[in-house]
Amino acid sequence: MNRLLPFEWIAATRFLREGAVQTLLIITGVGVGVGVVVFMSALLTGLQASFLQRMFSSQAQIVLRPPDEVARPLRRESDGFVVLATVLKPEQRLRSIDQWQKVRDLTKDIGGIITVSPMASGAGFAVRGEASKSISLMGIEPAQFFKIVDIPGKIVAGTVRLNAGDIVIGTELAQDLGVAVNDKLRVTTATGASQTLTITGIFDLGNRGSNERNTYVALRTAQTMLDLTGGVTSIDVTVKDVYAAEEIAQEITAATGVEADSWIKTNADFFSFIGSQNMSNAAIRIFVSLSVAFGIASVLVVSVVQRSREIGILRAMGASRGQILRVFLLQGAVVGFLGSLFGSALGWGILAVWRSYAKHADGTALFDVTMEPRLLAMAAVLATLTGLAAAILPAMRAARLEPVVAIRG
Amino acid sequence: MADPILELIGVRKSYNQGTPVETEVLHGIDLAMAPGEFCALIGPSGSGKSTLLNIIGLLDRPTGGKLLIGERDTAALDDAGLTALRGETIGFVFQNHHLITAFTALENVMMPILVGRGFPNGEMAQRADRLLEQVGLAAWRNAKVNNLSGGQQQRVAIARALARQPAIVLADEPTGNLDTKAAESVFELMREINRREGTSFLIVTHNLSLADRCDRTIEVVDGKILSDRKAAA
Ligand SMILES: Nc1ncnc2c1ncn2[C@@H]1O[C@H](COP(=O)(O)OP(=O)(O)O)[C@@H](O)[C@H]1O
Ligand SMILES: [Mg+2]
């Protein structure tokens, strides 16, 4: 007997060992429940993480934009009578963010922000001989922007050099126009400005639309071509905790007065989808915990009846009601804990099987699912607490047994 | 006579009190035991011997009268107080061995000390080893109690009853399930411990020849003490 372990622990583990078959059966039951929950949680976490990762490999979590121009009804000056109530939205010409350098610096000072990347973008045409395609011309500061969208990692030809006369385009556009690296490309914008640029790199963002439309140039080049005279049309912001994006966006607006839209607001549908996924996962967790708890409780109730004589003897030898109570509470906790270990192993096994099936045609994983130690630790704590809670009623029954009745029985 | 280790004054016991089937099975028992006494408790089956033993052993409360353990009125004690007093002063030996099968012989003997102290230590194991030696089972210390014979199990139970050096050992038909030879040796063991250690014994038995070899024989019939004789010294 280990001298560091109290009577309650010694008795609890001996009782569990003596009833090995019952103990193993209930540990298996607990394990199956924990395994399913662990697997499902890991899958869900992986799924959401891969969704977010995909989403944020091509966009920032917060975008700062200048306010829209508001269309006002026309009123007669003398009496304010509305002359023209239905107005067309004014044609949105490119507007820039007022004093964007100051806005950028203020934004940088807010906590939880990783990157602040200004952009000057507008529509244009890329012309090569007879061929002409409409494009989105995006002027960027490469050092900042590449932290948000990893263009260098998506380059399939050339490099991402972006000097004054350089442009980087997508694979579809290159194909449509029949151009390659080092070729010249004439770009015209809505303001009428036109410039011949050198293609320094061709990227593949893994998305047809982006490969067709997105083109990147140096910020200065875009500012000149779009007639923005040093202005930017938006500022992209990435944050450490993507779920805190909305609060941070509001902080930015409060600090700078510039409208800041978080992905949470602009992707409200996706967000409520994640919410309902989490909720159904929580519901499954609760029901599994309940069935685990009832399983443990029923085994312990039987065990209390079977051991009532031994409980009586222990009481006759001077064991207190509290000691008896704890012997049975501990049994519940131990069963819960061991079940969670088995369940973690089981969940890991299910995941391994799932991984071997859930693959793209080319054999790469659909998405990355990892079993985080934190998830397993949480499963262990929850299962142990569930076991403890399930043991409360049986343990109280054991503690209430009158020794004289228990011994006679 | 030295101060009694326990004293019963007009002890009554009714089962199912307050119900239509209430029955009084002990009708006013007066009894005192001196330190070191070796007593037999005899009487027909159903006369109330076990009931009396359970009350003396603080496993059950009387419904009338007084029980003093070492001058202490037990009526004033709550459940925790009774449990503590029971652990310190009383050892039990039951008819059906009542060992705990999840533990070895040695661990069974240690158990009363362990529940009293909370944590095991080497001293407990040593004391349990000495007791097992005294009852002649040193070689069986690590045996599972299920693998012991009835006589051996009862010896372990006696060693266990002595673990906390109780003032008195209460034995309810300790030889009732044993053959004559085993019964004789278990009885002799208790007698020897009583002589050597001065521990009092109160032994319920149907075996009158064994009862005759006790210092004192108390006979209970229908919940009353019919006779209380001391053996001629
Ligand atoms: N828990 C109980 N409830 C009701 N009656 C009981 C209970 N225990 C014992 N009795 C009754 O009390 C009487 C005395 O029983 P007991 O003390 O066991 O006698 P003995 O040990 O002398 O055979 C018997 O009539 C028995 O039926
Ligand atoms: Mg009896």
Automatic annotation (TrEMBL), chain A:
Q: Name the domain of life.
A: Bacteria
Q: Report how it sits in the membrane.
A: Multi-pass membrane protein
Q: What is the name of this protein?
A: FtsX-like permease family protein
Report if keyword NADP is assigned. no
Name its cellular compartments: Cell membrane
Name the major location: membrane
InterPro entries in alphabetical order: ABC3_permease_C (IPR003838), Lipoprotein-release_system (IPR051447), MacB_PCD (IPR025857)
Q: Per the similarity annotation, which family is this? A: Belongs to the ABC-4 integral membrane protein family. LolC/E subfamily.
Q: Which residues form the MacB-like periplasmic core domain?
A: 23-254
Chain ranges of the ABC3 transporter permease C-terminal domain: 286-403
In its UniProt entry, the species of origin is given as: Dongia sedimenti
Keywords assigned by UniProt? Answer: Cell membrane, Membrane, Transmembrane, Transmembrane helix
Transmembrane domains' residue ranges: 21-44, 286-306, 327-354, 374-393
Q: What Pfam families does the entry give? A: FtsX, MacB_PCD
TrEMBL record, chain B:
Stored InterPro entries: AAA+_ATPase, ABC_transporter-like_ATP-bd, ABC_transporter-like_CS, ABC_transpr_LolD-like, MacB-like_ATP-bd, P-loop_NTPase
**UniProt key word Transport:** yes
Which spans are transmembrane here?
A: none
**Swiss-Prot/TrEMBL keywords:** ATP-binding, Nucleotide-binding, Transport
Q: Where is the ABC transporter domain?
A: 6-233
> What GO molecular function annotation could you give as one example from this UniProt entry?
ATP binding
Concerning its family, UniProt says: Belongs to the ABC transporter superfamily.
Q: What is this protein called?
A: ABC transporter ATP-binding protein
